[in-house]
Amino acid sequence: GDGANDCGALKSAHAGVSLSEAEASIAAPFTSANPSISCMIEILRQGRAALVTASVTFRFMAMYSMIQFITQLLHYSIGTNMTDSQFLYIDMFVISGIAVTLGHSQPALNLAPSTPKAQLIDFKVFVLLTLHVIITFGFQYTVFVYIQSQPFFVPYVPAHDLKEGACFENTALFVCSAFQYALYGVILSVGAPHRKPAYRNWTLMLVFFLCTVMTVLFVFQPLPFLTNMMNLVSLQQLDV
């Protein structure tokens, strides 16, 4: 709309756009500097991308909760727990970085014939998340059993001379879950048809790279001050 007579329609519309800076701009959520309906294409591009971003962020946070639940479940099975410093690294560095940068993906250049689903979760999403949870459990349990089969493995026994959580199972599960958080951040970052591909989101790729490098260092080149701070044990003897 471009006049006072359009105010009622602009208020009741799903996406009202004012084509002037007169009375209609007060009632409309959007105001176009160019008095042409071509601005609707940009609104649709941005709106669809925003809807997909909301869905992607919801799925990632759901998977984050399930990954940590599985990790803690395996920890509790041997009577130990992740340390505060490990929780801090996961929550403040990995999760916060990925959750913030997930929304930096730009909208696709062209409008797709289809529209994104308005619901955050439906049957298809539920099935996919369930499969992801099963795969996540499979990998973590495999790592949990594999580390126990290594010749250098020492079973965890709570004692005064052993720091809380400082055992082979804890270190292996911490490293495995850290990889999974970063990987799922990229996997769940849906691109086409409403957003540009995940690799075009350079901030997400940077966070993914930093998280991967840090986690690799924990395995192959652990820095003494980091391993002490995180209560980790060395996995350099790992038979890979």
Which ranges are low-confidence, i.e. pLDDT below 50, for 5 or more consecutive residues?
none
Mean pLDDT over the residues: 81
**Major sheet: arrangement of strands:** 1-2
How does the major sheet shape up?
2 strands, parallel
Proportion of residues in extended strands: under 5%
SSE sequence, one letter per element: HEHEHHHHHH
Helix content: 55-70%
Number of strands: 2
What is the CA-atom radius of gyration, in angstroms? Answer: 24 Å
What report would you give on this structure?
The structure is a single chain. The chain is 57% helix and 2% strand. It is mostly helical and 240 residues long. Strands 1-2 form a two-stranded parallel ribbon. α3 packs antiparallel against α6, α4 packs parallel to α6 and α6 packs antiparallel against α7. The N and C termini lie far apart (66 Å).
Write the layout of secondary structure elements.
Blueprint: H1 7-12, E1 17-18, H2 24-27, E2 30-31, H3 39-76, H4 84-101, H5 123-148, H6 168-187, H7 202-220, H8 224-230
Helix pairs in contact: 3-5, 3-6, 4-6, 4-7, 5-6, 6-7
Short description:
The chain is an all-alpha fold and 240 residues long. The chain has eight helices and two strands.
